Amino acid sequence: MNIAIVGPGAIGSLWASYLTEAGHQVNLWSRQPAAKLTIQRDQYAQQSLLNNNTQALQQSDVILVTLKAPSVLTVLSAIAKHIDQDSIIVLMHNGMGTAEGVNALLPNNPLLLATTTHGAYRPSMTQVLHTGYGQTLLGAANSQGELCQFLVDVFNHALSDVTWHSNINQALWTKLAINCAINPLTAIHQVTNGELVQPHYQQQLQNIVNEVSLVMNAEGFEIDVNHLLQTVNNVIHATSNNYSSMEQDIAHQRRSEIDFITGYLLESASRHNIDAPYNQALYQAVKKIEQSW
Ligand SMILES: NC(=O)c1ccc[n+]([C@@H]2O[C@H](COP(=O)([O-])OP(=O)(O)OC[C@H]3O[C@@H](n4cnc5c(N)ncnc54)[C@H](OP(=O)(O)O)[C@@H]3O)[C@@H](O)[C@H]2O)c1
Predict the structure, then answer these.
(1) Least enclosed by CB within 10 Å: which of 46, 194, 199, 274?
(2) Would residue 287 show up in a list of annotated catalytic residues for this protein?
(3) Is the shortest distance between the CB of 134 and ligand 1 below 6 Å?
(4) Distances from the Cα of 270 to the Cαs of 40, 185, 258, 282, in angstroms?
(5) Where does the chain hold its CATH 3.40.50.720 domain(s)?
(6) Ligand 1 mean position to 138 CA, how many Å?
(7) How do residues 33-88 score in pLDDT, each as one tens digit?
(8) Is the model's pTM score more than 0.85?
């Protein structure tokens, strides 16, 4: 297939490399002006891919968008005129809230949402390291997207394990809940995920998760608060040495994805008239840090 990767950072370069290896014709859309970019994954051979080629983008069967959430709508608006209405758009990022805007911008395109637990790190512009194997979930965000389940086989063949989720929003909300718990706390206090086992953080996690589960229940997802807290703690243990993406964004003075994580939760809480003071305080604390730069 012809596959475009829009935003070939760490996770996008990882997929670009695996999809190329699987035999697909991959092109990139990046901020780099070069007509071709090189990607080397781990110790494997370098791959040279077309970059910012409007014809290749237009002919893409699949457009995998691996931008961070705050950039998605800006970048897709700028390139919408080069996107064929049959191209399948796949959004793969942390947080929620971009699908509505993309559906409005490209109403005829099949739209899929993806979430992945693979780990990728880009030590330089041309290198990507596959730092952890994980799973990828894929699901439809509009009726045209429902017809694209076959993409699971395409993606699975390139980088397993990929599964189809008939209610991708449920999976994304669970991921959002985990992100709401771990990301702001680790970002504000600049600590590893593992530090959150300390008793003073555990109390805060309980408060955050209580509010998140109220909102999720109001959104129609049956969620048990104790089970959710257990899930959060399982992730904390499994990733104890890791710094969350929000911790890293704040450490490097980059705009974080807080608006699409805690911000998205707060919008939903407000729609359902639910008070969420703990999450509100975390949201404001992260915003205050960002505004201080
Ligand atoms: N990395 C992981 O292990 C991992 C795992 C799971 C989920 N995720 C999620 O995946 C998403 C992407 O993460 P990432 O780690 O891959 O981030 P990243 O390395 O920063 O990748 C984002 C890419 O988007 C590019 N970009 C920004 N503005 C652009 C524009 N106007 N036009 C074209 N490209 C543009 C950036 O370009 P520059 O290179 O020029 O800055 C960068 O290459 C995030 O939501 C993250 O939370 C990441």
Answers:
(1) 199
(2) no
(3) no
(4) 45, 22, 16, 16
(5) 2-165
(6) 19
(7) 999 999 999 999 999 999 999 999 999 999 999 999 999 999 999 999 999 999 99
(8) yes
